[in-house]
C-alpha cells in the first residue's frame, strides 16, 4: 500500500549552514493521506491481528487524526473491518479526515471527551473477541517495531531528527540507530514530561538515553501561531517541501533553530524525518497556507 521506493532523501541547502548538511527523508511522498510514519507504525499490528484471526481493528483518535485515516486504509487493504472511536460528540458536519476514513469503510463511533479520556468503550466492542485494539496514535511496542523499518541509509547520518507525539516513532528510530548516531525528538505536546515514561517503555534497552527537545510545541498539540504558519510558507517557497502544522512544521522549525544556535557539530549531517501527516492541514482555515 505504501510504495517505499517513492521515499527519497533530499539535500536541503536552504537549511544547511555552519558546515552542517541537512537532508530530509520524504516519507510524505508515498501518499497524500496515508503517508508518513503511520503506515510503518501500523504494519505489525495488522500482521498480528491477521495472525490472531481477528476480523476488525478498533482504534482511537480525534476528528483530524492522521492515525484514524491511516488505520482505516491499512485495515481495508488487509481485508479487515475497522471502527474508529472518535473523541467528542458527533458534529453536524464531519471533518474531511473522517469522511475519508469512511471511504475505507471505517465505522465511526463518537464518544464523549470524558469517556474517551477514561477509555470507557462501548460494551459491544469489548465483548466481541474478533476485535483487535490499537492504541491511540499507534502507541506500543509493535508500533515501535514498525517505525524501526522506516527506510533510510543508516551509515550516512550523524543526527536523526523526528517529531514526537506518542514517541513510538522515536523509540523505533532509537532501537534501530547505528551506535554513534544521535536521535533527537521534537515534542509537539505542552506536557511532554508527563509522557516521557511511556516512551522509555518502548526502548529495546531501557537504559538508553533519550534526547527530546520540548521548546517547539507552539502552545501545545494542534496549536499553531502565525509565526509557525509563516515559517511553513517560507519553507515551502524555498524548498518545495510541504509540512503539516501539527507535527512536521514544528520539527523543521526546531531543527532550523538548533542549527542557528550551533547545536550540531560542524562537519556532521542531519536527517530530518518528514513523517507525512499533510492531510491534517485540512483543519486550518483556507488561505493560511500557500500550498
Ligand atoms: C503521528 C505523527 C507523528 C508522531 O508519531 P509518534 O510515533 O506518535 O510520536 C509525527 N508526525 C506525523 C506527521 C504524524 O502523523
Question: Can you put this structure into words, describing what you see?
Answer:
The chain has 291 residues and is of the alpha/beta class. It has 10 helices and 10 strands. The strands form 2 sheets. Strands 1-2-10-7-8-9 form a 6-stranded mixed sheet, with helices on both faces. Strands 5-4-3-6 form a 4-stranded parallel sheet. Helix 3 links the parallel strand 4 and strand 5. The model has no long low-confidence stretch (mean pLDDT 96). Pyridoxal-5'-phosphate binds next to helix 1, helix 2, strand 7 and helix 7.
Cα-to-Cα separation, first versus last residue: 25 Å
Please count the helical segments: 10
Percent strand: 15-25%
- Class inferred from helices and paired strands: alpha/beta
Major beta-sheet overview: 6 strands, mixed
What small molecules does this complex bind? pyridoxal-5'-phosphate
Could you name the key traits of this structure?
291 residues, alpha/beta, 10 helices, 18% strand, binds pyridoxal-5'-phosphate
